[in-house]
Amino acid sequence: MRWDNLFDDLESQLEREITAEEIDLQAEEERLRLARLGIRDRILAIHDAGLPEGERMLRLVLSDGSRIRVVPVAFGRDWFSGELVDESGRKPGCIVPLDAVAGVILSRGQIAPSLTGTPADESSATLSARLGLGFVLRDLCRRRRPLDLHLAGAVLHGTLDRVGRDHCDLALHEAGGVRREASVTEFRVVRMSQLLLVKL
User: Fold this and answer.
1) Tens digits of residue pLDDT in 89-107
2) How many Å is the Cα radius of gyration of the chain?
3) Interatomic CA distance for residues 14 and 149, integer angstroms
4) Rounded-to-integer distance, Cα 38 and Cα 21, Å
5) Full-prediction pTM beyond 0.85?
6) Per-state percent for the chain, helix, strand, coil, to nearest 5
7) CA 30 – CA 33 distance, rounded (Å)
8) Which of 15-29, 44-58, 94-108 has the highest mean pLDDT?
């Protein structure tokens, strides 16, 4: 009888050690997964979580300290587009460069969904997820779409004339007007790294 008790005790001890080892391994795998998550992955996870409308809105702190509220719609490699939410209830479209996001203010309901993201894998991403900010700006340039470029300390209104690898040329003109040579007040070359927000 004593041998049976000894073997039962050893067996349960071994099971506890194996279970503890599996729990430690799972915890380490989770820590590694979280360490690979980028800000894009977390924002995308909130977008994909199927949250109620109010929980899909993100409160962002931009690199100049300004704050915006935006509902993400589509994601590229280094940007996302969405609808700005302002006090008047209007929802103008915008493009947010991810490098301009200094922080995201999460509600309690957004924390857990944001952590369910998976680290971006460039090779398996859809075409739109691989498109960079330059591609989107070139499309806006081709469409001759008037827009506002928000920079630290300035908002420039105009139409993009051309888009380079790391900069864009903006013809400044009055808001509400169309780009005409006579209405252009200034030509400005803007580094893309200085963009905080593109408001459409």
Assistant:
1) 778 999 999 999 999 999 9
2) 24
3) 64
4) 28
5) no
6) 40, 30, 30
7) 5
8) 94-108
